Every structure is written in structure tokens, then in C-alpha cells.
Amino acid sequence: MEAAKPRAVIEDKERQIKETPDLVVKRQKYKMDLIPPALIVARYFADEQAEVDSLQAEAATAALDEYTEEHGVEEGLLEEALNRTTRSRGT
User: Fold this and answer.
1) What pTM, to 2 d.p., does this model score?
2) Phi, psi of 31 (to 5 degrees)
């Protein structure tokens, strides 16, 4: 079944056609017409996706902690915003 296979993305500058790729492998862009990539990932790469999600969550947490540490200094804007939020909640 040819429709189930990934195909190269169509990019025609003359007719101003540029498809958004569903999959990029070593700078090659592919479009999935029949099976969405999310279904393939869920079926065959669930463990890998869970690892990626975990690493992204860790990176986001680390970035937030770093930002809070850097900008949450006394008399800083972040501290002021946090204090305002705490006061409006009544704690």
C-alpha cells in the first residue's frame, strides 16, 4: 500500500507550495499521508517517547529553577509578582 509509506515533502517555489513535514530524518523531510506520526510513535516508540518527555520535563524544571534563582532576588520583579500573587490568594 503506497499511501502508508512516507513520501518526500513537496516544495515548489514557483507555485508557492510548501508542505509542513511530519518527519525529519537527517535533513530529509517526509510527509505521512495515511498514518499520523503520533500513532506510529505511540505504537512502536512508546518507551523512547516517555524518555524524551521525561528529559524535556527535567530540562523545563531546571530552566524554571534557574530563572527563579536568578530573578527572584530580594527587591526583584519576580519576587514582587510572587508576593502579589500570594497576597491575592489570601495566604
Assistant:
1) 0.53
2) -115, 135
Cα first-last separation, the chain: 62
What tens digit of pLDDT does each residue of 57-84 get?
999 999 988 888 877 667 667 777 777 7
Contact 30, 22 (CB under 8 A): yes
Distance CA 32, CA 49 (A): 19
Q: Percentage of the chain surpassing pLDDT 70? A: 85
E strands, 1-91, where?
7-8, 11-12, 17-18, 23-25, 28-31
Query: What residues does each domain of the chain span?
Result: 1-44, 46-91
Nearest in space to 72 (alpha carbons), one of 85, 55, 88, 59: 85
